[in-house]
Amino acid sequence: MADNIRVTRECAVKDLDKALGAAIQAHLAEYQMAEIESSTLMCCETVSTQKKKSVFGGSEKAIQAVLLTKKMLVWAEKISGKTTSAGSAKLDQIDMRDYESTAMFDVISDSGVNITGRYTDSKQTGQLFIALDDGPAGKKFRELLREAIKSFKE
User: Fold this and answer.
1) pTM of the predicted model, to two decimals?
2) Which of 65, 71, 73 is nearest to 47 (CA)?
3) Staple 74 to which of 27, 67, 92, 139, CB 3.0 to 4.6 Å?
């Protein structure tokens, strides 16, 4: 993670990056889930800046927003200000694993969680990396997500 600068902040959905908020709203409308916003357990936004190691230098910036409700996880991501995408999954159809506990952590140290399972817009399973820092907001989101998923497994 030495090459990534990452900051996670807790915020209201209305205070998200405008493009991310719009992508989440469009996704919720497309899948007729607009009412879930009122049952939000936590919403946060992570800004990640990755320093490039090439001769040309520069950096790449990604912003990721996640919205956790009692039944759903909703996310949106914007990479280098170019593409914005959103997705969601029911908590009873996903599993969470701390990235730091995976074999990839030994290759590329980073901070966040891997989400595996079936997403709302797919009939197949997939994997998503949610970037989170080690600060209070990142830790709180991990714990709330872990507990919310666990409540469906019991």
Assistant:
1) 0.88
2) 65
3) 67
